[in-house]
Amino acid sequence: MSIAEPPPLKTQPSKTQNPLGSAKGLNSGALGLIGNTVIGLSSVAPAYSLAATLGYVVLAVGDKAPSMFLVAFIPMLLTAFAYRELNRDTPDCGTSFTWGTKAFGPWIGWMAGWGLAVSAIIVLANTAEIAAIYLFEVLGLHAAAESLAAKVLLGCFFIAAMTYVSFRGILISERLQNVLIAVQFTVLIGVSVIALSKVFGGTAGPQAITPKLDWIIPTGISMSSAAQAIILCIFIYWGWDACLAVGEETKDSERTPGRAAVLTTVILVATYVLVGYAVQSFAGFGDTGIGLNNPENVDDVLTTLGGPVAGPVAASLLLLTVSISALSSTQTTILPTARGTLSMAVYEALPRKFSTVHPRYMTPGFGTLVMGASALLFYLVLSFASANALQDSVASLGLAVAFYYGITAYACVWYFRRTLLDSARNLFMRGIFPLLGALCMTWAFVQSAVDMLRPDYGFTAFGPFGGVFVLGVGMLVVGIPLMLLCFATGSRGFFRGRTLTADTEVKVPES
Fold it and tell me: Do the record's keywords include DNA-binding (predicted)?
């Protein structure tokens, strides 16, 4: 039977490899530790994430922005431990869906998978537009950067192009990302080092201030301000779990993806703290010029500093870097979501057409195309409905991320509950650390949702409710009728606990 057709299913032990590829027909062993880490870093899009959120973090907590990077890193690292432990037990590209189902049953597991899909759809629409706007700015086409038609046209092209790259295979994706991530980190670190050297050398200008140690100490911040900053920081870290989604295509799939996830988060926190210190110390906190309290800079304090730090060439490089970063994330965000839908279909939680794997490229072809089409539709609807709604959708993204990260961390504790006392390692790595990460994610979700209810939160409002809340919670709630539709139209075996339980081994297509 051709693997390109929706096949019947059987179970095999998780360590058994399908001769046609990985357990689900993917390109087994294509990635190593470096390639897997690059996929994770690219999915995060550090340059774009910083450009989009750093100003708002400063607006929320002032000079304590670097401390928020550290505070938000802690639950991310704790959650990464949960991902690593679950991946060692069940290296499945369904990640949160598979593990959530194994721990809590099909209904919660399905919603965890939906949380990942929602996050991807929202961010794809925004990264495509950001890539278009910044590319226009690099080329000096300022009118095009302000034109809705031009932005949408180029943004749609980027989504289509990156969907095609993802469709063509994991190796071409990795090679493209190797180049894009190298550009991002070279420019980010280079500009930060130049900025700090000018500050310490006294040539940064009168607005500059000397870096302070207490910038990394999270004191004197209200709970509401901290929650607002942390939910933003969750967004700038989000994406490292792509390492686990491509685990079935990675060498030593039980260990390498987990290591890559932890390594990715460590690299990110070091970079974010460095950039945060460089930006704050060079720009200062004035309300004019390049000052961080200037309302005109809040949308993008990063590229505003390019010219003052290192001249017009550096300014253009930063613009190009943000465009590249957004484009990079557009492609790597498609990868884990398409593989998530593949896993859901293999376990019969989605129509079996989603289990189709391209026989030549060894990618989830149908799921990849559906993911690209969904992002295009969401982008077009929000773009022509309201530019402010598109911006608010980014602000709401942290809710979906905290939602499925939290489910995954809780799933780790519950799934391994019977082995927690077998060793000190199990107690901490499978119990205490993931539980703390889950509680942090829960707090961030609840506190942020309460704040987002206010009609003055964000750029839009729906009656008495803030638009950010409506978009964030609304997109999650949409998953409930979709889940019921899947139950009603052929997925009853999954929802009745027949195809995926705590004891189910990896499902593979019959050859």
Answer: no
